[in-house]
Amino acid sequence: MTSVTSNVAPEQVKAFQALDVDQQLALFYFIYEKMGDTVTPAAPGASKASPEIAEGLFTQVKELSFEDQLQLQRDLITGKDTVITREYAALSDTTKLLFWYLLAQGMDSNQIIPMPPDYQLSGEANQLLTQVQDLGFEKQIAFFRDIVSPMGFDATGA
Ligand code: 45D
Questions:
Q1: What is the per-residue pLDDT across 93-151, written as a single tens digit (0 to 9) for each?
Q2: Whole-angstrom distance, CA of residue 108 vs CA of residue 101
Q3: Which of 9, 51, 64, 127 is an S-S bond match for 143, by CB 3.0 to 4.6 Å?
């Protein structure tokens, strides 16, 4: 799926992508935690997501070992070519968001490798966390779409 950047928060998107892979994962999880109940899959617009497709991919990931789950999430960010990263790349942006949301929930229910309890964000990542929180809901969603859209391996070369 070709990704089109929204240009709503280009500085934040660039700053996010400049972080190392683990910091991106950690920051993404902290953002999810701070959003709390403001996001629910029943939100208006959820019709644009394909819940069965997101859940199907999530189920594949859930069945991996914790170690492989972490590797898969790193591979999504670095764009490594694997079966799952190809499947991911073929999803719509909204379905990609839903998939990440399921992963984050899976972390909370111990189906997905949890954050190490003592994990620290870098100063840069912390700053970005504050900026993203200050964006407000609509812009945050645009930011997330821009983050998750280019992840995975797009076999069409886009
Ligand atoms: O050991 O329109 C480290 C929908 C280090 C509905 C690690 C929506 C080492 C339709 C890497 C830290 C709900 C889809 C370990 C809209 C180490 C709709 C592990 C909105 C273990 C708008 C780190 C959806 C890990 C939204 C595993 C807004 C980190 C969804 C994993 C937002 C981090 C989803 C994960 C968000 C983060 C998901 C999985 C913010 C996920 C974040």
A1: 999 999 999 999 999 999 999 999 999 999 999 999 999 999 988 899 999 999 999 99
A2: 11
A3: 9
CATH of the domain at 103: 1.10.2090.10
CA dihedral of residues 109, 146, 53, 133 (deg, nearest 10): 30
For residue 68, being part of any structural domain is answered with yes
Regarding the beta carbon of 10 and ligand 1, being less than 6 Å apart is answered no
Q: Supply the residue whose CA is at minimum distance from atom 34 of ligand 1.
A: 101
CB of 91 sitting under 6 A from ligand 1: no
Closest C-alpha to 5, from 155, 148, 157? 148
Residue 156 CA to ligand 1 centre (angstroms): 25
Q: 69 lies in a domain?
A: yes
Decide if 9 is inside a domain.
no
Query: Which is more confident, 6 or 54?
Result: 54
